[in-house]
Amino acid sequence: MRHLVLFGLAGLLAACGTQAPLTPPDGASLPDAPYGAPDKPTAEELLRRDALAAPERSVELRRRSEERQDDPFDLPPE
């Protein structure tokens, strides 16, 4: 029963962030423009991640077992 209540509260807390678009609090502003940029980035531009921050997966899933290659750096502790 206790776990059910905790999961319910976690769900409500997670859902409260999607009520309105993100804006800075009253009296605050977005960060200054980066050096050399003509204007300030918007909130949406600041939240967008570039390819280096979230790279695509390029690993194929294994369909069958394969022998692992010997790893010369996999040494036992001294």
Could you characterize the architecture of this molecule?
The structure is a single chain. This protein is mainly alpha-helical. Helix content is 24%, strand content 0%. It is built from 2 helices and no strands. It has helices at residues 2-15, 43-47. The longest helix is centred in the N-terminal third of the chain and has 14 residues, at 2-15. It is extended. The chain starts with a helix and ends in a 31-residue tail after the last helix. The relative contact order is 0.07.
Shape: extended
What order do the helices and strands follow?
HH
Helix % is 10-25%
Terminal CA distance: 48 Å
Structural class: mainly alpha
- Overall pLDDT, averaged? 78
CA gyration radius, whole angstroms = 23 Å
The DSSP helix count reads 2
Strand-residue fraction?
under 5%
Q: Unreliable segments (pLDDT under 50, ≥5 consecutive)?
A: none
**Main beta-sheet strand count, sense and barrel state:** none
The number of distinct β-strands equals 0
Q: What is this structure's SSE topology?
A:
Blueprint: H1 2-15, H2 43-47
Structure summarized in a few sentences:
The mean pLDDT is 78. The protein is mostly helical and 78 residues long.
